[in-house]
Write a structure and sequence with these properties.
Oligomer: single chain
Helix content: 25-40%
Structural class: alpha/beta
Number of helices: 15
Strand content: 15-25%
C-alpha cells in the first residue's frame, strides 16, 4: 500500500466507499490523517465500520473541520450538477481531490533521488490495452512494474514506492478532474471521441479533463499524443507551443471529420523533445505512424507486428506505438521493446480470442462500450457475425454505417436491440435479446457460411441493462461459447 502524507492529525472527509474510496481511507490513515468516511450505501458504511474507520453522516458534519474531501470518481464534480458533498466542500473552502492526487502527493513527498517513475495513460478508447501492453513490455524487459489505477488495482493499493519501480497508471477523465499535481514522467493521450459528455458539460469539458494529464509535467517529462482527431491535434499544438517534449502517434486513417490527415510536427531540435533517458529508434524521431501490421518513424520501420497474435488492426498498432515510445523513453532497448510487443498475450475483454469451434473463431470485445471502440473491432476483420447491443450511448451505431458491409449478420441484445434493428434495416440481422441466444444463432450461421469465420462480440453499448459491468458481460459470452463445445483459447 502507498501511504498518503500531508494530512497528519487532520480530519479528511472521504465520500464513496468503493475500491478507490476505501483504499484512500487506508492510505490516509497510514499517513497519520483522521479519515471520516461516508457512503450512500449501507454495505460500504458497514465495511468501513468493520475496519474500525470513523463513519459519520457527512450531511450533518461540520465541514469547517475538514482539511480535504477525497471524492469517489463516480460522484459528479461539476455536471450534471455538483454532488452534494462537493457543494458542502466548496461552501467551506475545502479542497476536493481524488485518489490519483493522493498518489501524486505521496511521490512528491519523497526526496527527488528516491522517486520512482510513472507512466500514465488516458484516452477515450485503447487506454486499458495500452496500459496492459506497456506493463507487459516493461516487465518483459526486466523492470519492476506496478500496474493499476482505473484498471485492476486502485492506485493507492499498489506496492510502496521503491527507486527502481515504474508505476503504469490508467486514469479516467473523472480521476483527472480531481488532480492538480499529478505529473507523470510519460503521459499518454491515446485518442479522443465524444464520451461521458453529461459528466463534463459537453465536449469542451471532456477534452479539458483529458488534457489535465499533461498539466503538471516537468521539463524533462514526455507527452505522447494521438493526433488522428482534431482534438488531439489541438492538444499537441498547445503542448508544443509551451515548449513541452512531445512525440505524436498517428495512423494512416483520416482524422474523423477533418479531411486529410494533419501531422503535428515540432520545429524544435529533436534532442530537446526527449527526456535525458529517451533513446530514439532512429535519429530525429518526433512522431510515429501506426498502420495495421507495422510501426514506422520518419519512414523507417520500427516494428513488424504481423507476428503479434494479440495486436490485430490499426488501433492495436496505435496502442503498440504508444507502448514502444514509452518503453524507449524509460531506457528499454529497441530490441527488447519490440520483443515485448510481439509476445503480448492480450487484454481480457478487448479483442480477446476466447474459443474456436472448427473453423469459427470467437472474439470477445466486451470492452467495446461505444461506437468508436466497436469501429476498431469491426475494421479488423473483412467479415464478422456481430453481436451488439446493451445500454446505448448517444448516437447509437449510426456512425458505423460505413462498416456495415463487414457484417455478415448482426445479433442484437439488450435495451438497444430494437433501435439498432432500425439502423441495421438494410443489413442482415436478428433481435436475439440474450447473450446465450445470440451466440447460439451466430455460431450456427457462421457454420453454414463455411470456411474461416469470426463471431465478434463488440457491443458498442454499456452493459448495465443486463450485466453489472463489461467484464461480467464478457464472461457471459465466454461461457456461452464454451457451452457450444468450443475449444478455449489461452487466457489473457
Amino acid at each position: 500500500m502507498i501511504t498518503a502524507p500531508g494530512f497528519e492529525g487532520r480530519r479528511v472527509a472521504v465520500f464513496g466507499l468503493g475500491r478507490s474510496g476505501i483504499t484512500a481511507a487506508r492510505a490516509l490513515q497510514a499517513g497519520g490523517a483522521v479519515p471520516v468516511l461516508w457512503d450512500d450505501g449501507v454495505s460500504g458504511r458497514m465495511q468501513a465500520e468493520a475496519e474500525g474507520f470513523i463513519v459519520e453522516d457527512l450531511t450533518r458534519a461540520d465541514w469547517s473541520g475538514f482539511a480535504a474531501l477525497v471524492l469517489s470518481p463516480g460522484a459528479p464534480l461539476t455536471h450534471p450538477k455538483p454532488h452534494w458533498t462537493v457543494e458542502r466542500a466548496h461552501a467551506a473552502g475545502v479542497p476536493v481531490i481524488g485518489d490519483v492526487e493522493l498518489f501524486a502527493r505521496a511521490l512528491d513527498a519523497l526526496p527527488q533521488d528516491q522517486r520512482p517513475r510513472v507512466v500514465a495513460i488516458t484516452g477515450t478508447n485503447g487506454k486499458s490495452t495500452t496500459t496492459a501492453l506497456i506493463g507487459w513490455v516493461l516487465k518483459s524487459a526486466g523492470l519492476s512494474v506496478h500496474i493499476g489505477g482505473n484498471i485492476g488495482i486502485g492506485v493507492l493499493a499498489l506496492p510502496a514506492p521503491t527507486l527502481d519501480a515504474v508505476y503504469v497508471i490508467e486514469v479516467s477523465s473523472y480521476q483527472l478532474d480531481l488532480t492538480t499535481t499529478f505529473a507523470p514522467d510519460v503521459a499518454i493521450l491515446t485518442n479522443i471521441s465524444p464520451d461521458h459528455l453529461d459528466r463534463h458539460g459537453g465536449m469542451e469539458g471532456y477534452v479539458a479533463a483529458k488534457q489535465r494529464i499533461f498539466q503538471a509535467q516537468g521539463s524533462e517529462a514526455l507527452a505522447l499524443v494521438g493526433v488522428d482527431e482534431a482534438w488531439g491535434q489541438g492538444i499537441a499544438t498547445d503542448l508544443l507551443g509551451i515548449g513541452r517534449r512531445i512525440c505524436t502517434v498517428s495512423t494512416s486513417a483520416h482524422p474523423r471529420g477533418s479531411g486529410d490527415p494533419v501531422r503535428v510536427a515540432s520545429t524544435t531540435p529533436t534532442d530537446s523533445l526527449q527526456p535525458k533517458n529517451w533513446v530514439p529508434a532512429s535519429a530525429g524521431m518526433s512522431g510515429i505512424e501506426a498502420a495495421s501490421g507495422e510501426l514506422t518513424a520518419d519512414g523507417v520501420m520500427i516494428a513488424d507486428l504481423s507476428a503479434a497474435r494479440s495486436l490485430p488492426g490499426r488501433h492495436n498498432a496505435q496502442n503498440a506505438a504508444f507502448a514502444y515510445a514509452a518503453a524507449r523513453a524509460l531506457g528499454v532497448s529497441h530490441e527488447a521493446a519490440v520483443e515485448g510487443l510481439l509476445s503480448f498475450p492480450g487484454l481480457a475483454h478487448r479483442m480477446e480470442a476466447v474459443g474456436r469451434l472448427g473453423s469459427i473463431r470467437f472474439i470477445n470485445d466486451s470492452k467495446g462500450t461505444n461506437a468508436d471502440a466497436a469501429r476498431q473491432a469491426l475494421a479488423s476483420y473483412p467479415s464478422v457475425f456481430w453481436i451488439a447491443g446493451g445500454k446505448a450511448k448517444e448516437g447509437g451505431i449510426d456512425s458505423l454505417r460505413d462498416l456495415f458491409p463487414h457484417v455478415a449478420k448482426a445479433y442484437l441484445i439488450g435495451e438497444a436491440a430494437d433501435a439498432f434493428s432500425v439502423t441495421l434495416a438494410d443489413t442482415p440481422h436478428i433481435v436475439a435479446h440474450t447473450m446465450e441466444r445470440a451466440v447460439e444463432l451466430a455460431a450456427a450461421d457462421a457454420a453454414k457460411a463455411g470456411g474461416e469465420q469470426v463471431v465478434l462480440l463488440s457491443p458498442a453499448c454499456a452493459s448495465f441493462d443486463q450485466f453489472p459491468d463489461f467484464e461480467v458481460r464478457g464472461e457471459a459470452f465466454r461461457a456461452a461459447v464454451l457451452a457450444l463445445g468450443a475449444k478455449a483459447e489461452p487466457a489473457a
